Structure formats: C-alpha cells, structure tokens
Please model this.
Amino acid sequence: MTEPTHATMESHPDILAMRERHTWAEQAATTPMAQAVEAMSLITGLYLAASPWIVGFNGMTTLAVTNLITGIAYALLMGGFGHAYERTHSMAWAAALLGVWSIIAPWVVAGNVATTRTVISNIIAGAVALCLALVASSQAKKAAPGGRGPGARAGR
Model:
C-alpha cells in the first residue's frame, strides 16, 4: 500500500503568486523614484496641513480646518507606500482627488476665504499633491509584473 503524497503549503500556487507580488512590491518601494515621491508627498501633506499658519490665513477657520484635515489625510495616504506598497498603491487615486480638492477648496468652502494668498498657496500645494499622486499611481503600474498592475496574471 502506498501512502498518498500531500503537497505542502510551500508549493501551493497561491502562495507562490503572493510571494511574487510581495517581491515586486518590495522592489518598487525601494527604488529611488518611489522613495523621492514618498518623501515629497509627506512634505507636501505636512505643508498643506500647516499652510494656514505658515501663509497666515488661520483666521479663516473653514479653510484652515479643511487644509489641516486634507494635508494630514494626504500625508497618511501617500506615506503608506514605503511600508505597504502593494496594498496602498491604489490609494494614490484618492490622494489625487485630495490634490484636486486642495486646488478648488478656496472657492468651495463656506465663507469669504478666496484671498490671493489662500488661492496661491492651495493651487501650488494642490498641484504638487496631484502630480505626486499621479506619479505614484503610474509607478505602481510600471512596477507590477508585466507592467499591468498588481494581481495581474499572465493568463488574463
């Protein structure tokens, strides 16, 4: 009588695919471009959060609170790339929306907050945030096996 052979978890196809995705994600997160995008994104998010006090429009509370929340959210979203690239790369689109929101916020939030310094500060910070988020999302696509994004399989 022959004993049945059991495949180990080490040879399971899903484990192998997960290892492959983890490997490319690590390689993508350690490139100089990815590290530069992450660092500049953190600085952009922190600037956006602190801009009411840096530029001097902290008396306009609606825009000050909006920039504070948007800047912190942007820094957290984009800061995740270095630690959990595979799971957070798709959040770059949410970060891009935060960049767009930063650009239009002086005209959308309640109150008369659209002054020259608020508009210029938000447009520049929002444009930089948008560009960095778009670069991060494009880098995620390029870094994936076959350049098709995470989870892409050869048979699809």
Observations:
- The two ends are 42 Å apart (CA to CA).
- Residues 59 and 132 are 29 Å apart (CA to CA).
- Residues 148-156 have pLDDT under 50 and may be disordered.
- The helical segments are 13-29, 32-56, 61-79, 85-88, 92-108, 116-143.
